[in-house]
Amino acid sequence: MVNQVQSVDSSWQSSKADSSGASNSSGESSKESSRCSTPVLDADRSDRLRDKMRRRIESGDHWFSLEFFPPRTASGAVNLISRFDRMGSGGPLFIDITWHPAGDPGSDKETSSMMIASTAVNYCGLESILHLTCCNQTKDKITGYLGKAKHLGLKNIMALRGDPVGADWEEEEGGFNYAVDLVKHIRSEFDDYFDICVAGYPTGHPEAESYQQDLRHLKEKVDAGADFVITQLFFRAETFLKFLDDCRTIGITCPILPGIFPIQGYQSLRQLVKLSKLEVPEEITSILEPIKDNDAAIRNYGIQLAVEMCRVLLDSGKVPGLHFYTLNREVATMEVLRQLGLWTEDPRRPLPWAVSAHPKRKVEDVRPIFWASRPKSYIYRTQDWDDFPNGRWGNSSSPAFGELNDYYLFYLKSKSSKEALLQMWGEELLSEESVFEVFTFYITAQSNRCGQKVLCLPWNDEPLAQETNLLKDELEKVNRRGVLTINSQPNINGKPSTDPIVGWGPAGGYVYQKAYLEFFTSSENVTALLKVLKKYEPRVNYHIVNVHGRNLTNAPDMQPNAVTWGIFAGREIVQPTVVDPVSFMSWKDEAFALWIEQWAKLYEDESPSRMIIQYIHDNYFLVNLVDNDFPLDNCLWQVIDDMFELLDSPAAPPCEDATP
């Protein structure tokens, strides 16, 4: 892995005060503490982007960042958020989202720059920079956009003049004509709230009178309050290194990140070069011309070229990080990063659930387990909370979960198309057993009767997690018989926090879990289950509810039950996941609604398939079970076996229906 440098350019270290007041002394590397989503267990540490950069520079850990642009369509927005999740797993320090004046970039549209950047921060947990340009905008309008960005949790702005709408730049009355004026305005109106990035041009801005004049303009932007610089793309490493030296010579001491563009296609290169008014060196065009119609060959060459150039930059000891222009594609950039050793998919999580990067959620370290597979929904439903649980969930009698009526929102929708969902879940359902099969195929990762693998369910938009795979055989058995599981975890007794499957939190700790099982099942099964559960009390806590609100539980005084906790050196015990009876009633509404919103609505009204899903929605119960004796073997499977044994027993008396 490329994480050691001989003599990293340290000029910035002396130019910015250490706002955190201390170096990294926790024993964790700065790479771990400065990934895109700052681990919540390090909430005492400054989470400003410029401080993350400083820590990485001081430690010699290289980083990378990624640029994306807003999509044009709603389906494109869904796909882009999925790409954020995939590319975010490699550990970018941040991403940035471009500003397109023609696309209503500051609006609430799902394709706007503002909403894409907000989603990246709030729902994907990615440190994000929002581009903002002066083009066709008044000072008041810009101030409004900055205020909105702050409200949405965005903390970083890339201040740009922007490209003119027409052939030439037209001055905006009551606006700004230069990026330096925008930087000054941000500092004037918002003081030090935002970290500010500005653009640098290794060959000089195409409209500048000279290269030297453009350098002076860059210094003006930095002196006005910019924290770091990202450059325009270039094709030779020496071009950037000369530019970097020239910047240092005139007193620009902040981090300067090279903009890397892996060539991925002939036409995309021509278009980008036209927009940036750059010339492609002859040694590159002479290779590209003969293969211009071979996309694979061009991509492979682009990867090779980018890797070679990046290695020269990193080996120089002057470049702490690389910024990649992805063009919203992932294959080439990910391959470059893998070859450089910068793509680091750390299986450990800061917490057992996906964290948000919104500043107000920085202290959050406890959530109900019910939303384990729907973290974006949980964040959406709690977005208006002023305070978030820290240390303990507490005994809240009425946590104010927002209603979830906006299933259509691009960050809450399944990333699979309607056609794909029908292929996975069935073009036509014949009975309840058809639904049992769908769940079973999801658990086993085997192809269904149509040869299609079931990769998601309404409650789980991803394939089965590694942790759940530990329970795969038992889950398959119970789903075949109509215990339709949507959430589960094995019991864990003191596994190292570095365990690749169940580990979370800082290295050197130990994690614990109580066995948990959550499922839908019929009223007949629930009647038998209630009889069986009597002999497992108080070891097993249960909560059973139907769509109408009939509520059966043995939770003492409706208290939350910690089902995941960790012990770490020098810290209090952390218990990030609970089973909370009150929150379960809010989750119940969402869990039942997903039968209709994401499954039943795939079919025509009054169709047999739709009526089957409607019947399950109306008549089944949602059940959660907790085995409190985590050091012992998980007893929940025996509970289910006993339930089926009671149902199958010929001598058993008729079960009373559990429906109201």
Give a short account of the largest sheet.
Answer: 8 strands, parallel, barrel
Q: Hey, roughly how much beta strand do the residues contain? A: 5-15%
What percentage of residues falls in helices of 4 or more residues? 25-40%
What is the 3D form?
Answer: elongated
Low-confidence stretches: 1-28
- Would you report the number of β strands? 18
Summed over residues and divided by their number, the pLDDT gives a mean of: 88
- The Cα radius of gyration reads 27 Å
Q: Kindly, what is the distance between the CA atoms of the first and last residues, rounded to a whole number of angstroms?
A: 61 Å
The number of helical elements comes to: 21
Spatial sequence of strands, sheet with the most strands: 1-2-3-4-5-6-7-8
Helix/strand-derived class? alpha/beta
How many domains, as an integer?
A: 2
Q: Layout of SSEs?
A:
Layout: H1 30-33, H2 49-59, E1 63-68, H3 74-88, E2 94-97, H4 113-122, E3 128-133, H5 139-151, E4 156-160, H6 179-190, E5 195-200, H7 211-223, E6 228-233, H8 237-249, E7 256-260, H9 266-276, H10 282-288, H11 295-315, E8 321-325, H12 331-340, E9 367-368, H13 375-381, H14 418-425, H15 432-444, H16 466-469, H17 472-480, E10 484-489, E11 492-496, E12 510-513, E13 515-521, H18 523-533, E14 540-546, E15 551-553, E16 561-567, E17 574-579, H19 581-599, H20 608-619, E18 621-627, H21 636-648
Parallel strand pairs: 1-2, 1-8, 2-3, 3-4, 4-5, 5-6, 6-7, 7-8, 9-17
Antiparallel strand pairs: 10-13, 11-12, 12-16, 13-18, 14-15, 14-18, 16-17
Helix pairs in contact: 6-7, 8-11, 11-12, 15-17, 18-21, 19-20
